[in-house]
Amino acid sequence: MQANPFLGVGLHAVGAFSAASCYTPQKQTRLWAWEIYWISQATFAWVILPIVFAFLTIPNYLDVLAKCPPEAMRNSFLLGVLYGVGGLSFGLGIRYIGFSLNYAIAIGISALLGTLVPLIWDPNKGWTWEIAEKFNTTPGQVILAGIIVSVGGIALCGWAGALREKSGGSGPSQFSFQRGVPLAILAGVLSSVFNFALIAGEPIAKAAVAADAPIKEDDAPIKEDDIEHGASDLLAMNAIYPFSHGGAWVASFVWCAYLIGRNGTKSQFVRLPENGNRSLGFYYLMALLSGAFWYFQFFFYGMGHANMGEKYGFTSWALHMAMLILFSNFYGYLFREWEGATTIPKKVLHAGMAVIVASTLIITYGNYLGEQKSSPPVEKEVPHETVRLDR
After folding, report:
1. CA–CA separation, 357 vs 365, rounded Å?
2. Containing H/E element for 121?
3. Residue pair 9/360 in contact by the 8 Å Cβ criterion
4. pTM to 2 decimals?
5. Which one of 68, 120, 375, 384 has the fewest CB atoms closer than 10 angstroms to its CB?
């Protein structure tokens, strides 16, 4: 397919907005213990929806899996488990250093490692050292500048959040810099692994796209209706998600099962701990909605990635991380989390968000330049001279 980086960025924006929205339904489930809500929404996000949409969007999905190398499914799943551990570390880090600072450290590290390390080591190819090749051209240098600017914008947003928590007195009750920062770093490193899980699953996506023509014993021509068509390039990554997401679910299940046993909250699966304005069915509906928001971030991520181009498509992860920060802070404003903040934190936040928007434009322009240079020149059609033969 013909890449379109501008369309790709738009699709990444839809995915990031969906990701930033995934925690909003949780505000309606206050009677549930955290572990009940988390494993409920994670089951929708990481098990049910990935499997359902894989079968809906990938033709003959079971046949596709039968043709895939088993190590692609295994590696994607195991890397997904590490990502799930990173998500749990992220949650613990918030307890000690607050949401904003934890988010800036974890997402900043994830953006850098998840974007650049695959250019050095690829789960499918091993050590490739492609990083110099990618950045020794003008498009590559523009993209590298955009990635650096993006991390700077993420850092500014984190600083703004830290200033807000300090000035507003809304910092975490168990503040501990010594505990929180290592947890945030661990969360950033392991969260970046999710991009490796997607890369490890690329053979699955390629098998989903491939179309196989049936073998015929006679010399009869193969008709269009006889050809088994593969998945669209835009939807091919849906074939990977049951494995990458399934691994993340396993890590969450183990932790939530431990918390449920420790806190004695398993009864909340079938009845709420006290009477409220909402029914148990409503709580499961909110878990479904939250899970759908989380799943659809990567549904659109796959379509955005397909449009970023082959050579510089690795920028998808950096774009997703930057936009995730951008829309998360948008929701912070929407829910009036910044109302008690002084002028300086707000100005720093606005600067950080502006820098992230600028970085997105820079990375998009770099991808556009890369696509222009990598596209084969269009050959001009030479008109045939008409020769008249008079006899």
Report:
1. 12
2. strand 121-122
3. yes
4. 0.81
5. 384
